[in-house]
Amino acid sequence: MALLMGRRSLRRIGCSTTAAGLVALTFAAAPPARAADTLDAQVPNGTFAQPVAPDNGTAAGHTDWSPDNTGVVFGKALAQHPLGYQAAALNWNGAALSMRTRLWGVKAGSHVTLTWDDSPGVDRRCKPEQVKDGQTYNVSLIVEGPAPDPVVTTNGTDTVGTANWATGRVFEFTATEDNPMVSFDSDERRDSLSCGPLITNVAAKQTPAPVDQKIRKEQLPAPKAYRGNDRMEPGVAVDDCEGSATNCVFTVDNRYSYQYYGQTRIVGEVYINCSRNAVVDDRRIESTEPPYDSLTQYYARNGTPLVPSRSDISTSRPNLAAQAAAGFSAAGGNTAAVSTNNPLTWSRTGSKKLNPTIQPGEVSWIEVQPARERVTGTFSNARNRYRLDATFDVPAASLPDRYFQRTGPLTDVELQRCGSARPTAGTPDNGAGPDKRLLAVDSPPAGVRTRSVPLGP
């Protein structure tokens, strides 16, 4: 998929060099680590261990990076990294390369610290003048806007084919989207275009953005889907997961999943006591909590609501729902997916017998405050490299609902109603005398005798 975006350049860079048997020399101090930067961000194949190259040779491509069908990785002995890592070349086969990868699990607004190591090229076709003063490349965050000029230069080396690794390069930024993409772009365009910088040991830590608990369950964040590092239509990933009960694995993101109490609402009738005595209102009330999810809402926004149910993903997409339930159970420590007292509950109907007492001159009603669970996570299919980020909002099984008996004074309207005359006071009464009757009584038929018989003494 074409990326119609620019790149944001480095905000801060630092590095240090090491050599066997020598004390580490720091020539540009890296920024101090933030205290909250304790969570790793996923950088797939950050040490370029895949594909496996011969120790003194190369292997085509670089798994999980884009594009994955250009360039090479250098074997351990050829790369000469102090920790024995393979390395990726930013120039190969006569071309300067761009290598991109997403940092999975990073939410927009998170502070990210990206680190990596670099060295001048070790290809035997390099020329001394290409590596003597180091080689230049750019590291950037893919964002809207113009592409910046390259800003990073490797160490230099006096010997062609000998690496000179700088470790601990640092790039700090604030993510502008979920799963942001970073790019390494060579600026080496001199004679031998197969001689370019090497990079490896790419890693990232993050200070996660705070959880936004003001997002309404009716307006959940839109799902996001990817094939490799490229965006794709979420519906394609949904159909893939639904295709088989074992197609996808759901992993819960515990950082952005939480339990909460929803907005209270009235259930059952409102009882108004106009009498002079307290009244006990025996009643049984029922309340239903439906599920909400970003996938159902995605289809509804696109004008293609899911069937047979628009609100229950477990009915419309049972395989996908079962995968989500299994992942939720695993995240709760139930990796064997055996019977659990905290299952993912898609909907719940509760019935409760209550006996509220209503005092004279008061109005009473029952409110329920539902216990709910916001579950954020990712469906993944390693076979075709699909990834689907989705959110579910369901009744919480491990948190009880709250019921409130609410009472209060009567409103003016209710007071007027309690003080009004009985509805029967003004109805016609044909038991009165003939002169007081409100409705005329037909005369008896001619020649027929009539009589009245009292029913009581």
Show the helix and strand layout:
Layout: E1 6-8, E2 15-17, E3 25-28, E4 39-41, E5 58-60, E6 72-74, H1 76-79, E7 87-89, E8 91-92, E9 95-96, E10 98-102, E11 111-119, H2 128-131, E12 136-143, E13 152-153, E14 166-174, E15 181-186, E16 198-207, E17 224-227, E18 230-232, H3 234-242, E19 249-252, E20 258-261, E21 265-272, E22 279-280, E23 283-289, E24 292-293, H4 294-301, H5 313-316, H6 318-331, E25 348-354, E26 357-358, E27 362-369, E28 371-381, E29 386-395, E30 402-409, H7 412-419
Antiparallel strand pairs: 1-12, 2-3, 2-14, 4-16, 5-6, 6-7, 7-16, 8-9, 10-15, 11-14, 11-16, 12-13, 12-15, 17-18, 17-29, 19-28, 20-28, 21-27, 22-26, 23-25, 24-29, 27-30, 28-29
The first-to-last residue Cα distance is 98 Å
Shape annotation: rod-shaped
Radius of gyration from CA coordinates: 36 Å
Please report which band the strand proportion falls in: under 5%, 5-15%, 15-25%, 25-35%, 35-45% or over 45%: 25-35%
Mean pLDDT: 86
Describe the protein in words:
This protein is mostly beta strands and 457 residues long. It contains seven helices and 30 strands. The chain has helices spanning 76-79, 128-131, 234-242, 294-301, 313-316, 318-331, 412-419; strands at 6-8, 15-17, 25-28, 39-41, 58-60, 72-74, 87-89, 91-92, 95-96, 98-102, 111-119, 136-143, 152-153, 166-174, 181-186, 198-207, 224-227, 230-232, 249-252, 258-261, 265-272, 279-280, 283-289, 292-293, 348-354, 357-358, 362-369, 371-381, 386-395, 402-409. The strands form seven sheets. Strands 2, 3, 4, 5, 6, 7, 11, 14 and 16 form a nine-stranded antiparallel beta sheet that branches. A hairpin with a 7-residue loop joins strand 2 and strand 3. The longest helix is centred in the C-terminal third of the chain and has 14 residues, at 318-331. It is rod-shaped. The chain starts with 5 loop residues before the first strand and ends in a 38-residue tail after the last helix. Residues 1-5 and 8-35 have low confidence and may be disordered.
